[in-house]
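sorry for the late reply, my laptop died twice this morning and i had to redo everyting from scratch. anyway the thing you sent over, i finally got around to it. pasting the sequence first so we're on the same page, its 245 residues, then the predicted structure underneath. double check i copied it right bc i was rushing
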Amino acid sequence: MSRDVGDRPGFTIVETLVALSLGWLVAFLVLTTLARQRRIQTGLSHRSDGLAAVRMTRAVLVDEALVGAPGRDGWRLSGGSLELRAFRGIALPCTSPTASDELAVRVQGIRLPDPDKDSVLVVDFTGAGPVIAILDRQAGTEVDCGGPGPGTLERWRLSGAVPKGALVLRYFERGSYHLSGRALRYLRGQAGRQPLTPEVLSETLTGFDDDGWHRSVRVGTTAPWGEEVVWPRVRLRTSEEPDER
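ok and here's the structure:
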C-alpha cells in the first residue's frame, strides 16, 4: 500500500513554516498600509491646521491694524508684538452731549461694551478727542434715540463728561498680539498670552517687519517632520494710509 503524501515525515512542518511566512507577510503589508495612511492623515491634518493658522493670523492682524493709527490710537509695533487699542464697536450719542458723565447711546459692534476692561475714545470734528473709562452701562429701554435703528440702546456712566461736539464714541480694550510659541497669541491685562491659532507657525519664518514706512507681517508654517512653507507677506495698512490698489 502506498502512503499518502501528507503522511511523509516533515511535510506538516513545511506547511506550517509557509503558512507562518505568508501570515507575517500579510501582517507586514497591513501594518505598512496603516502606517502610510496614518502619515497621510497626519499630513492632511497638519496642512489644514497650517492653513487655518495662516488665514487667522493674517485676517486678525490686518483688520486690527486697519481700524487704528500709530501714535493716535496707541498702535505700536515692537519686535514680535503689536500693541494697540483693540476697538470693539462704536456708540452714537442719542442727544447732544452735555457737561455730564451720563449719556444715552446707540451701540453697534462685534460685542457689547464691558466696563471691566473698556474705555471710549471720543471722536469729534477734528477726528480726535479724550479717552474716558466706562464705569457702568444699563439697558436703555426708555431711551429716545430718534426712532428705530440698528444697534442696542444703552445708558452709560463714564469717568468724565463727554465734550460738546462729540460725534462718535469708539469703545476699546488695551491689548497686544504676539507671534510667539509657534502661534498667534493675544494678551490683555494679566490673563497671559492666549493662543488664537494652532501651534504650527514657524519660529524663524514668522514675524513683523517695519522699515519705518511700510509695516507687514510674514507667516511661515512648519510640519512635525521639518517641512517649512513660506507664505506671501501681508501689508499692515493703518487708517491713516491711503489704499494703494
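Residues 11-66 form the longest helix (56 residues).
thats about all i looked at so far, will dig more tmrw
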